[in-house]
Write a structure and sequence with these properties.
With 381 residues, the chain is of the alpha+beta class. Helices cover 34% and strands 14% of the residues.
């Protein structure tokens, strides 16, 4: 996995009907979009690096669906995947990103000074704040398709870029395969460590091949800025801290990202970006900003209120348990983050989190006193 060109040519001895996957029990965006006609049209195409239609869809064929969330069901193997297979991927992107059309243009705004407020979220309710994104490096295939040599080249360049950072960003790189037990335990305690993927969604797409070769974690000395190398994306960049100062977290996120990109650009390897899709990443769900700005916030009363889900939807926010996407909330603490990735800028998405969480804390305070929040339910954003 992936199989490359010769195998794809061999498949063409069979008819499209013989090769078309059985998607009759599937519930994912790919299965909704992939008709036999589209399969016929695209099955003999491949990107310059040899990524094929079957490589794009395999994870969605092997994983029919998820009980709680509508999964995407496909991945990109390189920057060109989104162009070569656009007849399939454009409808998936439109469906997944709220009607984002093939002609739409995405906005990027990493000027942290454009964020209004965000340094005043009540720390009695907001336990921690974080902003994360992914980045792909121009000139390399993406993790579902990358070779060992490519992965190692990306790691080498990443170490060089990250070790050149100074001041608040000075830190250390920990390669997964050469980590001491003590370092590993410390990273687990800090909730920084990522492990070999066990999710069948990631395994079926080929992202875990050669694990843990050329994977690693870098963090600054203050443990407030973190980069994962060669996980689901080439780079995952995370800024975080305890408490409710989202403004400061977003500042660190923007400045750190721009510093890293400047070093990559010196090697003529900037980040994949275009004006339609924004930042190009492995999973179509992360296109655009790739950004998830979230806070862990205590909402024991609001979360039991009949209007909680409606309030989240209207504020364009989503909730998770504090342990991640499939976990339950403990003690009324939720991970609240922006629902959108594509079509809104980074500043706009973090602004939605800041404004929305502020309102929800006001609602929580009112409910604590036995008041009604019916007149506080916001209009749809």
């Amino acid at each position: 996995m992936p199989f490359g060109n010769t195998h794809n040519n061999y498949k063409l001895k069979f008819s499209a009907e013989d090769e078309y996957p059985d998607l009759s029990k599937h519930n994912n965006h790919m299965a909704k979009a992939l008709t036999l006609d589209i399969y016929k049209k695209l099955r003999d195409k491949q990107t310059p690096s040899g990524f094929t239609l079957d490589d794009v869809i395999q994870t969605g064929v092997d994983n029919p669906g998820h009980p709680f969330i509508m999964t995407v069901g496909c991945v990109a193997g390189d920057e060109e995947t989104y162009e070569v297979f656009k007849d399939l991927l454009d409808p998936i992107i439109q469906d997944r990103h709220g009607g984002y059309k093939p002609t739409d243009k995405h906005k990027t705004d990493l000027n942290f000074e454009n964020l209004k407020g965000g340094d005043d979220l009540d720390p009695k309710y907001v336990l921690s704040s974080r902003v994360r994104t992914g980045r792909s490096i121009i000139g390399y295939t993406l993790p579902p398709h990358s070779s060992r040599g490519e992965r190692r080249a990306i790691e080498k360049m990443s170490i060089e870029a990250l070790s050149s950072l100074d001041g608040e960003f000075k830190g250390k790189y920990y390669p997964l395969k050469d980590m001491s037990d003590k370092e590993q335990q410390q990273l687990i305690d800090d909730h920084f460590l990522f492990d070999k993927p066990v999710s069948p969604l990631l395994l079926a797409s080929g992202m875990a091949r050669d694990w843990p070769d050329a994977r690693g974690i870098w963090h600054n000395d203050n443990k407030t800025f973190l980069v994962w190398v060669n996980e689901e994306d080439h780079l995952r960049v995370i800024a975080m801290e305890k408490g409710g100062n989202m403004k400061e977290v977003f500042r660190r996120f923007c400045v750190g990202l721009q510093k890293i990109e400047a070093v990559f650009k010196k090697h003529n390897h900037g980040f994949m970006w275009n004006e339609h899709l924004g930042y190009v990443l492995t999973c179509p769900s992360n296109l655009g900003t790739g950004l998830r700005g979230g806070v862990h916030v205590k909402l024991p009363n609001l979360s039991k209120h009949a209007k909680f889900e409606e309030v989240l939807t209207r504020l364009r926010l989503q909730k998770r348990g504090t342990g991640g996407v499939d976990t339950a909330a403990e003690g009324g603490v939720f991970d609240i983050s922006n629902a959108d990735r594509l079509g809104f800028s980074e500043v706009e998405q973090v602004q939605m989190v800041v404004d929305g969480v502020k309102l929800m804390i006001e609602m929580e305070k009112k409910l604590e006193k036995g008041g009604s929040i019916d007149d506080m339910v916001p209009a749809q954003k």
